[in-house]
Design brief:
Blueprint (H helix, E strand, L loop, with lengths): L10 H8 L5 H9 L1 H19 L9 H7 L7 H4 L38
Protein backbone atom coordinates (compact mmCIF):
# COMPACT_ATOMS: atom_id res chain seq x y z
CA UNK A 1 0.00 0.00 0.00
CA UNK A 2 1.43 3.35 -0.97
CA UNK A 3 1.59 6.38 1.30
CA UNK A 4 -1.29 7.94 -0.66
CA UNK A 5 -3.59 5.10 0.48
CA UNK A 6 -2.62 5.55 4.12
CA UNK A 7 -5.41 8.03 4.86
CA UNK A 8 -8.74 8.54 3.11
CA UNK A 9 -9.69 12.04 2.02
CA UNK A 10 -11.57 14.06 4.61
CA UNK A 11 -14.93 15.63 3.73
CA UNK A 12 -13.14 18.99 3.45
CA UNK A 13 -10.58 17.51 1.03
CA UNK A 14 -13.33 15.94 -1.07
CA UNK A 15 -15.01 19.34 -1.29
CA UNK A 16 -11.72 20.93 -2.33
CA UNK A 17 -11.28 18.28 -5.04
CA UNK A 18 -14.81 18.85 -6.32
CA UNK A 19 -14.00 22.56 -6.59
CA UNK A 20 -10.65 21.83 -8.28
CA UNK A 21 -8.63 23.10 -5.33
CA UNK A 22 -7.18 19.93 -3.75
CA UNK A 23 -3.37 19.83 -3.71
CA UNK A 24 -1.97 17.30 -6.19
CA UNK A 25 -0.26 15.28 -3.45
CA UNK A 26 -3.64 14.44 -1.89
CA UNK A 27 -5.42 14.08 -5.24
CA UNK A 28 -3.15 11.10 -6.01
CA UNK A 29 -5.15 9.18 -3.40
CA UNK A 30 -8.19 9.25 -5.68
CA UNK A 31 -6.30 7.28 -8.35
CA UNK A 32 -5.82 4.44 -5.87
CA UNK A 33 -9.00 4.55 -3.75
CA UNK A 34 -12.30 3.69 -5.41
CA UNK A 35 -14.32 4.61 -2.29
CA UNK A 36 -12.93 8.14 -2.10
CA UNK A 37 -13.23 8.60 -5.87
CA UNK A 38 -16.91 7.56 -5.79
CA UNK A 39 -17.63 9.98 -2.94
CA UNK A 40 -15.70 12.79 -4.62
CA UNK A 41 -17.49 12.30 -7.94
CA UNK A 42 -20.88 12.44 -6.17
CA UNK A 43 -19.81 15.67 -4.48
CA UNK A 44 -18.69 17.19 -7.78
CA UNK A 45 -22.00 16.17 -9.43
CA UNK A 46 -23.92 17.80 -6.57
CA UNK A 47 -21.98 21.06 -6.99
CA UNK A 48 -22.68 21.06 -10.73
CA UNK A 49 -26.41 20.52 -10.09
CA UNK A 50 -26.56 23.29 -7.48
CA UNK A 51 -24.99 25.76 -9.90
CA UNK A 52 -27.76 24.97 -12.42
CA UNK A 53 -30.56 25.83 -9.97
CA UNK A 54 -32.59 28.94 -10.67
CA UNK A 55 -31.54 31.85 -8.52
CA UNK A 56 -34.26 33.78 -6.75
CA UNK A 57 -34.70 36.68 -4.40
CA UNK A 58 -37.49 37.59 -2.01
CA UNK A 59 -40.27 39.71 -3.48
CA UNK A 60 -40.37 43.46 -2.95
CA UNK A 61 -41.59 44.30 0.53
CA UNK A 62 -40.86 40.83 1.96
CA UNK A 63 -38.46 42.08 4.63
CA UNK A 64 -40.86 44.83 5.67
CA UNK A 65 -43.73 42.32 5.98
CA UNK A 66 -41.67 40.00 8.16
CA UNK A 67 -40.32 42.78 10.36
CA UNK A 68 -43.82 44.19 10.86
CA UNK A 69 -44.65 41.00 12.76
CA UNK A 70 -41.50 41.01 14.91
CA UNK A 71 -41.74 42.39 18.44
CA UNK A 72 -38.43 43.71 19.71
CA UNK A 73 -38.05 44.14 23.48
CA UNK A 74 -37.18 47.67 24.50
CA UNK A 75 -36.09 46.87 28.07
CA UNK A 76 -34.64 43.96 29.98
CA UNK A 77 -37.97 43.55 31.77
CA UNK A 78 -39.83 43.27 28.44
CA UNK A 79 -37.49 40.53 27.25
CA UNK A 80 -37.98 38.35 30.35
CA UNK A 81 -40.74 35.79 30.64
CA UNK A 82 -41.21 36.69 34.33
CA UNK A 83 -42.56 39.90 35.83
CA UNK A 84 -39.11 41.22 36.69
CA UNK A 85 -35.51 40.10 36.40
CA UNK A 86 -35.13 39.42 40.13
CA UNK A 87 -37.46 36.42 40.03
CA UNK A 88 -35.81 33.23 38.87
CA UNK A 89 -37.83 30.33 37.53
CA UNK A 90 -38.46 27.46 39.92
CA UNK A 91 -36.58 24.45 38.60
CA UNK A 92 -38.60 21.32 38.04
CA UNK A 93 -37.27 17.90 39.11
CA UNK A 94 -36.62 16.97 35.47
CA UNK A 95 -34.31 20.00 35.22
CA UNK A 96 -31.66 18.27 37.37
CA UNK A 97 -29.80 15.15 36.29
CA UNK A 98 -30.44 12.03 38.33
CA UNK A 99 -27.98 11.58 41.17
CA UNK A 100 -27.01 8.20 42.58
CA UNK A 101 -28.92 7.36 45.71
CA UNK A 102 -27.13 6.81 49.00
CA UNK A 103 -27.40 3.31 50.29
CA UNK A 104 -26.16 1.60 53.38
CA UNK A 105 -23.45 -0.05 51.27
CA UNK A 106 -22.06 3.26 49.98
CA UNK A 107 -18.41 3.63 50.94
CA UNK A 108 -18.02 7.26 49.87
CA UNK A 109 -20.90 9.60 50.79
CA UNK A 110 -21.94 12.26 48.30
CA UNK A 111 -21.65 14.90 51.04
CA UNK A 112 -20.19 14.66 54.53
CA UNK A 113 -22.88 14.07 57.16
CA UNK A 114 -22.15 17.44 58.85
CA UNK A 115 -22.13 19.48 55.63
CA UNK A 116 -24.38 22.50 55.45
CA UNK A 117 -25.43 24.33 52.33
Amino acid sequence: MSEHMAQHLTPDEIELWALGLLPAARALHLAECAACLTTAERERKLFREIVQLERFAPSAGFVEQVMAGVRIATTVKDSMTHKDFTTAPTPTPSFFPALPSRTATSTVPLLPENATS
